[in-house]
Write a structure and sequence with these properties.
The chain is mostly helical. The chain has one domain: MetI-like fold, CATH 1.10.3720.10. Helix content is 69%, strand content 0%. The longest helix has 37 residues.
Length: 305
């Protein structure tokens, strides 16, 4: 009860989108679209990402041939009408392998970031919200992970688990955990001091409900922007591990592994490394450009001009 005898409301205003009216949601979508268009490079970046996603989904329909089929009579064929991107040292169609490789690269990036968020975000939110000894213990563990260079930590994990695509994704996800944990902690520290959170505590709302209804919705925008950026970095890191022979193993059509195989024929068949390299460049570039526009849309401080 307040001093004037009126009861304290059970809940306080929050950013829970499920409480918005339909008109508010439509207005928000129009405003988000305007903000997205303010970034001239976000739309092209989003188109690039969508193209790669479509290619990955419909790979069996788009690939001109079996990416695993060998044809030793057509080894190291240069780009031609029959093989637009040429063939590799075993006569496999490079275009088909790149199309199927889009699946693996997107899987590497998305799974690694999902794993990192699944571990790092709850740890960061609990650390920032509870504080005290819990905060100290969690952050010291995070600092231990940060003490190792990312790729070196990934290599160490793979050396324990063994080289494979799944272990490479796990390794990349583990070394990405500190980024999400620290971001979630910092954002939680700022949000938990807001008046509506204090009102929720005063009304007797449980900590778990506060975290679910008010803390996470108000920090999720920062996490989603970070996730988009980290997907691109995870794809690059996973490709690097495959290039070193620690990620996807032959005959998987993974772009990093294709670069590793093609380096032995760089002088006589440069197309073996040019096309997988371009695929990595365009996908990572598209994600980075789209992330810039996504930041404008999700940033609560952004206003229309």
């Amino acid at each position: 009860m307040t001093d004037n005898g009126k009861p304290i409301p059970e809940t306080a205003p929050s950013s829970d989108l499920s409480l918005d009216e339909p008109g508010d949601r439509k207005s928000r979508k129009r405003r988000a679209w305007r903000q997205l268009k303010r970034s001239r490079l976000a739309i092209p970046g989003g188109v690039i990402v969508v193209i790669f996603i479509v290619v990955a989904i419909f790979a069996p329909l788009l690939a001109p041939s079996d990416p695993y089929k060998n044809d030793l009579s057509k080894t190291l064929t240069t780009p031609c009408a029959a093989h637009w991107f040429g063939t590799d040292e075993l006569g496999r169609d490079i275009l088909s392998r790149i199309i199927f490789g889009a699946r693996l690269s997107l899987l590497e990036g998305l799974f690694s970031v999902f794993l990192a968020m699944l571990i790092g975000v709850p740890l960061g939110i609990l650390s920032g919200y509870l504080g005290g000894k819990t905060d100290t213990v969690i952050m010291r563990l995070i600092d231990i992970l940060l003490a190792f260079p990312g790729v070196l930590l990934a290599v160490a994990i793979i050396s324990i688990l063994g080289p494979s695509l799944v272990n490479a994704m796990i390794a990349v996800g583990v070394y990405t955990v500190p980024m999400f944990a620290r971001l979630a902690r910092g954002s939680t520290l700022a949000v938990k001091e807001e008046p509506y959170v204090e009102a929720c505590r005063a009304s007797g709302m449980s900590n778990l409900r506060i975290l679910y209804r008010h803390i996470y919705p108000n920090i999720s925008a920062h996490l989603y922007v970070m996730a988009t950026l980290r997907v691109a970095i995870a794809i690059l890191t996973a490709a690097s591990l495959s290039f070193l022979g620690l990620g996807a193993q032959p005959p998987s059509p993974e772009w990093g592994a294709m670069l590793s195989n093609g380096r032995n024929y760089l002088l006589i068949a440069p197309h073996l490394v040019v096309f997988p390299g371009l695929a990595i460049i365009f996908l990572v570039l598209g994600l980075n450009l789209f992330q810039d526009g996504l930041r404008l849309v999700l940033d609560p401080k952004t206003v229309d001009r």
